Amino acid sequence: MSEESQVLIVVDVQKGFVTPQSEHVVTALENLQYEFDYVVFTKFYNPDPSPFRKLLNSASMAPQSPETELALTPREDAVIISRPLYSCVTEALLVRLKTWGLKEVFIAGIGTETSVLKSVTDLFELNIRPWVLKDLCASEKGAEFHDPAIAIMSRLIGQQHVITCNGAEANIARS
After folding, report:
1. Locate the Isochorismatase-like domain: which residues (predicted)?
2. Rounded to 5 degrees, what are φ and ψ at 132?
3. Per residue in 113-123, pLDDT tens?
C-alpha cells in the first residue's frame, strides 16, 4: 500500500435512514466507492437492550430487520462493520485503518447530526484526520439538522477538513 492510498467510510446508508431528505446521497456514494483504494460501509443496529430503546424509546433499526440493510450495493472488496452505537469508530475499524497504514479518512453518509458527527469527532480525537464530504452527507430529517451539524464539524475539526466532493473524482483534492 502506498502513502497515497485513500479510504472512504460510508456511514449508515441503510434502508431505514433513506428518506426524501437523504436519498440523494445513495447513488452518489454507490458510484464514488470505486474511486478509493479502500471502502468501509458501516451499519447501525439497535439491540435490546440499548440506550436508544431505554432512553429514547426507539425500537427502530432492530438487528436483522429489513431497515438495517444497506440501501446500496457495496463493491466486492468492501469492508462492512456493524455497531450498536452512534460512532462507527469501533475496534474493527481501527484495526483496518492500522492494517492499511492510514491516518486519514474520507467520510460521508446518512446521519450528519448523529453518526457522522460522532464518528468524525472520535476519529479526530484519535489523531486520524477526517475529511468530511459535506455534499455526500445527509440527515434523514433534512437540512434543518444537516446544516448545523456541518457547521459544528467545521468548528470541531477545522473548516479546511469539511470539503465538497463535486462528484466522483479519482483523486479528491484536499483543501
Report:
1. 7-154
2. -85, 125
3. 999 999 999 99
